[in-house]
Amino acid sequence: MEAVQTDVFLKAPEVAGRLKVHVTTVYRLARSGRLRAHHIGQGTVRRRGLRIPESAVEEFLRDSAVA
Question: For residues 55 and 67, what is the distance between their CA atoms, to the nearest angstrom?
Fold first, then answer.
């Protein structure tokens, strides 16, 4: 039997801490599509609950590495 791999989801401030950037930068990266993210909930004023898979953070770092 194959083990199911689950991804850990991080909040924007947690990702900002790992990347050593401001939280606004995390939101901009997610909005531009450079950082894969998911919105949780359907707020009337704005959506809340941005969650970023840990694998997306690793993918972003790998893709943004300087040769």
Answer: 21
